[in-house]
Amino acid sequence: MENCMTGNLTRLCGNVNGRPVFSHYGRSRKFYVFPLSVPRLSGAEDVINIVCGEEQLKALEPDSSTMLKVTGELRSYNNKSGVGNRLLIFVYANEMTLCEAAPENLISLRGTLCKRPVLRTTPLGREICDILIAVNRPFGRSDYLPCISWGQNAREAARWSIGDMIELEGRVQSRNYVKSAEGRQVCKTAFEVSSSSVRRTEPDSALKI
Length: 209
Known about the structure:
Layout: E1 3-4, E2 8-16, E3 21-26, E4 29-39, E5 45-53, H1 54-60, E6 67-78, E7 87-98, E8 104-113, E9 118-121, E10 127-137, E11 141-150, H2 151-157, E12 165-181, E13 184-201, E14 207-208
Parallel strand pairs: 5-7, 11-13
Antiparallel strand pairs: 1-14, 2-4, 2-6, 2-8, 3-4, 4-5, 6-7, 8-10, 8-12, 9-10, 10-11, 12-13
Protein backbone atom coordinates (compact mmCIF):
# COMPACT_ATOMS: atom_id res chain seq x y z
CA MET A 1 0.00 0.00 0.00
CA GLU A 2 1.11 3.57 -0.68
CA ASN A 3 2.98 5.78 1.77
CA CYS A 4 0.79 7.42 4.36
CA MET A 5 1.96 11.04 4.37
CA THR A 6 -0.93 12.38 6.43
CA GLY A 7 -0.59 9.86 9.26
CA ASN A 8 -4.16 8.67 8.73
CA LEU A 9 -5.02 6.23 5.94
CA THR A 10 -7.94 3.79 5.87
CA ARG A 11 -8.90 1.38 3.09
CA LEU A 12 -12.08 -0.68 3.24
CA CYS A 13 -13.91 -2.97 0.85
CA GLY A 14 -17.31 -4.27 1.89
CA ASN A 15 -21.06 -4.24 1.34
CA VAL A 16 -23.30 -1.22 1.83
CA ASN A 17 -25.42 -2.12 4.86
CA GLY A 18 -28.06 0.61 4.94
CA ARG A 19 -29.46 3.66 3.19
CA PRO A 20 -27.44 6.89 3.33
CA VAL A 21 -28.93 9.53 5.62
CA PHE A 22 -28.12 13.21 5.91
CA SER A 23 -25.27 13.95 8.32
CA HIS A 24 -24.30 17.63 8.14
CA TYR A 25 -23.30 20.63 6.03
CA GLY A 26 -19.63 21.58 5.71
CA ARG A 27 -17.89 24.15 3.52
CA SER A 28 -21.01 24.55 1.38
CA ARG A 29 -21.23 20.79 0.85
CA LYS A 30 -23.90 18.33 1.95
CA PHE A 31 -22.63 15.17 3.67
CA TYR A 32 -24.30 11.81 4.22
CA VAL A 33 -23.53 8.78 6.39
CA PHE A 34 -24.13 5.09 5.73
CA PRO A 35 -22.90 1.79 7.22
CA LEU A 36 -20.41 -0.44 5.41
CA SER A 37 -20.17 -4.11 6.43
CA VAL A 38 -16.73 -5.76 6.17
CA PRO A 39 -16.50 -9.50 7.01
CA ARG A 40 -13.66 -10.86 9.14
CA LEU A 41 -11.93 -14.18 8.52
CA SER A 42 -13.67 -15.49 11.66
CA GLY A 43 -17.08 -15.03 10.05
CA ALA A 44 -17.97 -12.03 12.21
CA GLU A 45 -18.26 -8.63 10.57
CA ASP A 46 -17.39 -5.02 11.32
CA VAL A 47 -20.04 -2.43 10.48
CA ILE A 48 -18.32 0.92 10.00
CA ASN A 49 -19.95 4.30 9.41
CA ILE A 50 -18.85 6.06 6.21
CA VAL A 51 -19.27 9.82 5.76
CA CYS A 52 -19.14 11.15 2.19
CA GLY A 53 -20.18 14.11 0.07
CA GLU A 54 -23.49 14.25 -1.75
CA GLU A 55 -21.71 14.33 -5.11
CA GLN A 56 -19.97 11.03 -4.34
CA LEU A 57 -23.31 9.35 -3.66
CA LYS A 58 -24.89 10.70 -6.81
CA ALA A 59 -22.00 9.37 -8.90
CA LEU A 60 -22.32 5.81 -7.51
CA GLU A 61 -25.91 5.47 -6.22
CA PRO A 62 -24.97 2.64 -3.81
CA ASP A 63 -27.62 0.34 -2.33
CA SER A 64 -27.72 -2.80 -0.18
CA SER A 65 -26.45 -4.95 -3.07
CA THR A 66 -23.41 -2.74 -3.70
CA MET A 67 -19.83 -3.81 -2.98
CA LEU A 68 -17.88 -0.63 -2.32
CA LYS A 69 -14.21 0.27 -1.94
CA VAL A 70 -13.58 3.28 0.31
CA THR A 71 -10.29 5.06 0.80
CA GLY A 72 -10.16 7.80 3.39
CA GLU A 73 -9.36 8.76 6.97
CA LEU A 74 -10.60 7.53 10.33
CA ARG A 75 -12.03 10.52 12.18
CA SER A 76 -13.65 11.35 15.50
CA TYR A 77 -16.34 13.82 16.51
CA ASN A 78 -17.17 14.95 20.05
CA ASN A 79 -20.93 14.43 20.27
CA LYS A 80 -22.46 17.01 22.63
CA SER A 81 -26.09 16.26 21.82
CA GLY A 82 -26.51 13.84 24.74
CA VAL A 83 -27.86 11.19 22.36
CA GLY A 84 -25.68 8.20 21.48
CA ASN A 85 -21.96 7.80 22.11
CA ARG A 86 -19.98 10.84 23.25
CA LEU A 87 -17.14 10.07 20.84
CA LEU A 88 -18.33 9.27 17.32
CA ILE A 89 -15.91 7.36 15.11
CA PHE A 90 -16.33 7.18 11.34
CA VAL A 91 -14.39 6.94 8.08
CA TYR A 92 -14.35 10.13 6.01
CA ALA A 93 -14.33 8.99 2.38
CA ASN A 94 -11.85 10.67 0.06
CA GLU A 95 -12.52 8.16 -2.73
CA MET A 96 -15.28 5.61 -3.32
CA THR A 97 -15.51 3.12 -6.18
CA LEU A 98 -17.69 0.14 -6.99
CA CYS A 99 -15.75 -3.11 -6.77
CA GLU A 100 -15.96 -6.89 -6.84
CA ALA A 101 -12.78 -7.44 -4.84
CA ALA A 102 -12.29 -9.50 -1.69
CA PRO A 103 -13.26 -7.81 1.61
CA GLU A 104 -10.55 -5.51 2.93
CA ASN A 105 -10.03 -3.61 6.19
CA LEU A 106 -6.67 -1.86 6.55
CA ILE A 107 -5.66 1.20 8.52
CA SER A 108 -2.41 3.02 9.16
CA LEU A 109 -2.11 5.73 11.82
CA ARG A 110 0.60 8.00 13.12
CA GLY A 111 -0.16 10.17 16.13
CA THR A 112 0.62 11.24 19.65
CA LEU A 113 -0.26 9.23 22.73
CA CYS A 114 -2.67 11.50 24.63
CA LYS A 115 -3.79 9.28 27.51
CA ARG A 116 -1.95 6.90 29.78
CA PRO A 117 -2.12 3.34 28.33
CA VAL A 118 -4.17 0.82 30.31
CA LEU A 119 -3.02 -2.81 30.38
CA ARG A 120 -5.68 -5.36 31.28
CA THR A 121 -6.56 -9.03 30.84
CA THR A 122 -9.63 -10.34 29.01
CA PRO A 123 -11.90 -13.01 30.57
CA LEU A 124 -10.12 -15.54 28.32
CA GLY A 125 -6.74 -14.55 29.77
CA ARG A 126 -5.38 -12.48 26.85
CA GLU A 127 -3.42 -9.32 27.61
CA ILE A 128 -4.75 -6.18 25.95
CA CYS A 129 -3.70 -2.54 26.16
CA ASP A 130 -6.03 0.42 25.53
CA ILE A 131 -4.34 3.31 23.73
CA LEU A 132 -5.75 6.71 22.76
CA ILE A 133 -3.84 8.64 20.11
CA ALA A 134 -4.33 12.11 18.62
CA VAL A 135 -3.82 12.24 14.86
CA ASN A 136 -3.39 15.65 13.24
CA ARG A 137 -5.42 16.74 10.25
CA PRO A 138 -5.53 20.02 8.25
CA PHE A 139 -6.75 23.34 9.68
CA GLY A 140 -5.26 22.69 13.11
CA ARG A 141 -7.67 19.94 14.11
CA SER A 142 -6.99 16.48 15.54
CA ASP A 143 -8.83 13.18 15.70
CA TYR A 144 -8.77 11.24 18.98
CA LEU A 145 -8.80 7.57 18.09
CA PRO A 146 -9.11 4.62 20.50
CA CYS A 147 -6.81 1.72 19.68
CA ILE A 148 -5.97 -1.64 21.23
CA SER A 149 -2.92 -3.89 21.07
CA TRP A 150 -2.44 -7.49 22.16
CA GLY A 151 0.11 -9.77 23.80
CA GLN A 152 3.72 -8.62 23.62
CA ASN A 153 2.65 -5.43 21.83
CA ALA A 154 0.26 -4.70 24.71
CA ARG A 155 2.98 -5.16 27.33
CA GLU A 156 5.31 -2.87 25.38
CA ALA A 157 2.63 -0.20 24.88
CA ALA A 158 1.86 -0.17 28.61
CA ARG A 159 5.32 1.33 29.24
CA TRP A 160 4.83 4.32 26.96
CA SER A 161 4.20 7.89 28.15
CA ILE A 162 1.80 10.65 27.18
CA GLY A 163 3.35 12.63 24.33
CA ASP A 164 5.11 9.67 22.69
CA MET A 165 4.77 9.43 18.91
CA ILE A 166 3.06 6.17 17.88
CA GLU A 167 2.76 4.36 14.55
CA LEU A 168 0.44 1.45 14.05
CA GLU A 169 -1.22 -0.73 11.45
CA GLY A 170 -4.33 -2.83 11.85
CA ARG A 171 -8.05 -2.76 11.13
CA VAL A 172 -11.09 -0.75 12.16
CA GLN A 173 -13.45 -2.84 14.24
CA SER A 174 -16.95 -2.46 15.66
CA ARG A 175 -17.83 -4.05 18.99
CA ASN A 176 -21.30 -4.40 20.50
CA TYR A 177 -21.77 -4.19 24.26
CA VAL A 178 -24.55 -3.71 26.81
CA LYS A 179 -24.60 -0.74 29.18
CA SER A 180 -26.94 0.03 32.07
CA ALA A 181 -28.69 3.39 31.68
CA GLU A 182 -31.47 4.71 33.89
CA GLY A 183 -32.26 1.24 35.19
CA ARG A 184 -32.40 -0.52 31.85
CA GLN A 185 -29.99 -2.37 29.59
CA VAL A 186 -28.99 -0.52 26.41
CA CYS A 187 -27.13 -2.10 23.48
CA LYS A 188 -24.34 0.13 22.18
CA THR A 189 -21.57 -0.12 19.59
CA ALA A 190 -17.97 0.94 20.16
CA PHE A 191 -15.44 1.54 17.39
CA GLU A 192 -11.69 1.13 17.77
CA VAL A 193 -8.53 0.22 15.89
CA SER A 194 -7.28 -3.30 16.55
CA SER A 195 -3.56 -3.10 15.82
CA SER A 196 -1.53 -5.91 14.26
CA SER A 197 1.68 -3.92 14.72
CA VAL A 198 2.40 -0.86 16.85
CA ARG A 199 5.59 0.95 17.80
CA ARG A 200 6.93 4.11 19.38
CA THR A 201 8.88 6.24 16.93
CA GLU A 202 10.61 9.57 16.44
CA PRO A 203 8.46 12.62 15.56
CA ASP A 204 9.95 12.99 12.06
CA SER A 205 9.68 9.32 11.07
CA ALA A 206 7.68 8.44 7.92
CA LEU A 207 5.02 5.76 8.04
CA LYS A 208 4.47 3.17 5.35
CA ILE A 209 1.67 0.70 4.89
